[in-house]
Amino acid sequence: MVGVNGYGLNNTYPTRATVLFLGLFLAGGAIAAEPWLSRLVAEPRRWRATVALEGRLMTIYLWHLTALGVLGAAVLTAGGFGLTDHPNTRDWWLIRPLWLVALAATTLAIVLLVGRWEDPTARTAASGTRPLLPLLEVAVACLGLGYLASEGMDHGLTSWSVAAVTLSTLVVLDRLLCPPRHGAPRRS
Predict the structure, then answer these.
(1) How far apart are CA 173 and CA 134, in angstroms?
(2) Is 15 helix (H, G, I), strand (E, B) or coil?
(3) Can you say how many angstroms the Cα of residue 170 is from the centroid of all Cα atoms in its chain?
(4) Could you tell me which of 139, 134, 140 has the C-alpha nearest to residue 168?
(5) Confidence label for 158 from pLDDT (cuts 50, 70 and 90)
(6) Which conformational region is residue 14 in: left (phi greater than 0), alpha (psi within -120 to 50 degrees), or beta?
(7) In angstroms, how far is the first alpha carbon of the chain from the final one?
(8) Of 167, 159, 160, whose CA–CA distance to 113 is shortest?
(9) Which residue in 135, 139, 162 sits closest to 151, CA to CA?
(10) How far apart are CA 90 and CA 85, in angstroms?
């Protein structure tokens, strides 16, 4: 449904009625599945698993394309397995399940690394004493990413140094903003 300009019909620009009908189909499917899903999560363990997953949905949403980019770069570096086949060929479709599993694993790894920042209670103790630290984190991230976006990663040691300094600074600022909680009970 999402097209790319220059490659035939594009349903999203200009927007066509097919996108409206896809949205209606998805909404109708969700409404139709609601009774079945309600019965499915009525069991307490399934409900707890659903709530735990729901607590990380924004992280999954925000990082799944980064995971796809990391996975694509790794695969291209390793020879391009699965990226050289033309879409909608038999080989392309046979490789899709492997790609989906690899994408899920890569996304899970990133979520495990960055998901802790979704916990608002981790920042409550320090946020009142240092209100400028979150702004400083955003500024450092924007400056570092802005440099890398404008100059690229092909400037050798300079680009990698900027990336390393930006990441190191963000880690230090995060430790100041959100120090480890000693003696706090672990969440299960």
Answers:
(1) 8
(2) strand
(3) 18
(4) 140
(5) confident
(6) beta
(7) 40
(8) 167
(9) 162
(10) 9
For residues 123 and 144, what is the distance between their CA atoms, to the nearest angstrom?
Answer: 23
Residue 104, number of CB atoms within 10 A of its CB: 13
Give exposure, 3-35, as e/b (b: 16+ Cβ within 10 Å).
Answer: eeeeeeeeeeeeeeeeeeeeeeeeeeeeeeeee
Spatial CA neighbour of 107 closest among 34, 53, 176:
53
Find tokens 């690229």 and name the residue: 152
Whole-Å CA distances, 53 to 32, 45, 64, 172: 22, 12, 15, 29
5-38 pLDDT, tens digit each: 677 777 777 778 888 999 999 999 999 999 999 9
* Phi, psi values for residue 12, rounded to 5°: -100, -20
**% of residues, the chain, pLDDT over 70:** 79
Domain boundaries, the chain: 1-54, 56-118, 120-183
Contact 119, 125 (CB under 8 A): no
Give the separation between CA 127 and CA 133, rounded to whole angstroms: 8
